[in-house]
Amino acid sequence: MPIANPPPSARSAEPGRTGGAAPSGQGVRRSGSGRDQRRAVGRPRADRLAPYVLVAPAVLVIVVLRLWPLLLGANFSFTGDGQRNGTTVGLDNYLELFRDPLFRGALRNVGLLVLILPVAVAIPGLLATFIHLRVPGHRLYRSVYFFPAVLSPVIVGAIFNLLLAFDGPLNAVLGAVGIGPVDWLGDPDVAMFTVVGVHVWATFGMALVVFLAGFATLDATLVEAARVDGASLPQIIWHVIAPSLIRTIQFVFVTTMIGMLTSMFGLLYVMTSGGPEGSTYLPEYYIWVQQGQLNRPALASAASTVLFLIMLVVGLLQISLLRRAGREA
């Protein structure tokens, strides 16, 4: 019996033959792969741009609110005050600064702060170590140590003015044990140490929190292994904890130094007003005196520029020294 030939439409749909539905499917497949390729090419470009887009608002805020005013202040420091207001005076303001005994005294006090800085960092570091090692009452200590950080500098200064008065409670206690009274805020040789000590007491709570955050990343097995090997607590701190927290220590060093140079105005104003005999002047207090009391904004801008350079140099030196110490450890 003869077999009828299939209709043309059926022949076009058979496998292996050209035309019909097969070419259209291949065309769709090719166009889809083209879109995938374009997406694959576009995605890495978007991934590269994403970090810049996310960082751009923060960079814009820093440039507009920090760097631009800094440049304006530095430029203003080369102009005159009073009768020479707005005229270019070159380095006259800077020469006047370094001829002023009050500003030179402020710079000497900055050197004193640099020398005291390791103690100001070691105190919260050691206390955080004891809390991390869970000494009895460590939860209570954590709250007590942080409490002064929430107090206003004006309140702290007023409290210590009462405690450190010549006829105040502290001298009464010293007199009870046979030690003569100390003029804590009136002796030029003692006043600066007193104010710095109060500042450290009032602010070390923030550094304590930073150290505790660093301890959260510390590998506890290292400390336990050192204990098993018979290491003492000082050896554990020096050879295990300190190298592991070198980044945290760098951060605390820099932020503590910046805080000492820029956040002591409230204490100085309330406790000593820069006295006695200008012995407790710091650059930030000197800037306020020139700007707010003597109406010397250009000279105050020059002092601000010097303060910025001091913080920059000290911060970079601290980071360099701590990095070297970390590599040697």
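The above is record 1. Record 2 follows with the same two-line structure.
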Amino acid sequence: MQLAAAQLPQHLQKGLKSLYTLHGDEALLIQEAADAIRAEARKQGYTERVVHTVAGAHFDWSEVLASGGSMSLFGDKQIVEVRIPSGKPGKEGSPAIQQIAESAKGNDDVLTIFVLPKLDKMTKTGAWFGALDSFGVTLEVQEIDRRALAPWLTQRLALVGLRVKSGEEGERTLKFFADRVEGNLLAAHQEIQKLSLLHPNTAHPEPVEGQGFDPSTSSGQAKLSPNGVGSANGLKELSFEQIEAAVLNVARYDVFKLSEAVLAGNLVRTQRMLDGLQAEGEAEVLVHWALSEDIRNLHRVRSLMDEGKPLPMALQEARVWGIKQRLYERILPRLSPLDSANLLHAAHQVDGIVKGLKSPGWPSNSWVALQQLAGMVCKVAA
């Protein structure tokens, strides 16, 4: 049974199942979902906990099977956690997981929790994952995207009794905070905990284990007041200066998020992400691949449209899906054939630069050339 992350608190109130599968790349939210399940399990008498981490192709699955198939020495209920960091259980793991999933049905003495990273479509259609979904509850934790990050921070600040000022200063404060922690929710959580220590709200109760995971937290939609910055009732107000002085720059970026920023025409965010990728030591070739892949796809779809194909059909033929599809739909109606050809030529020039060649009219520094190329796409998309 598939469960949306926002439904977990209500689900746990109705009763605990014997098998849960958590998957996604947001480590903080995965951890909090697991905490919420474990907290409810302890209320119901699950006092022992065994953790298995599947590492390597030669992992001994017999230990996991034995954990779930035997009672505790003292007859206590137990929690068995199976963590698969790679998301690949291996040849022996697949039948073992199917056996574990089948045996979990109706077993009220053992609670089994599988923790997995973000899974691709092919993995989700595999027999072992299908067994987990059929005999238990699967919960996919979605990432908090940039647009939802400010409300998410508002919600998290409220959990520790804090809020930002209302109005324009509050919006500026949340934007600054989001820029500092983008792509790193675990560090964002730590920065909020630090703020609660530096500026404690003595009248606000400490959050209990599992409290951080609720519908508004997991979906990125905070419970907002009409002014958009949360209820002031009982919350201590922080100024921009207080947050600026305390919050470190712990943002992390990847080339896929860079692609979204470029296609959205957000030049400031694009420049910041390129600076971050350079500081993190990302390979220029990979950054160029992300930019040029979008440029090639835009050119391909533009060419199909010029041949008379409608935009939806052209996007489908070019295999453009999801958020990229929405961004392409916004850009393509105003992307001229000349713009498309110029971007394609520029991508070719920068390809040589990142490989050590020189190109007339272009900077010799790879990162400067990448910023110029990204700026060209931003200008077309803005």
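The chain has a mean pLDDT of 86.
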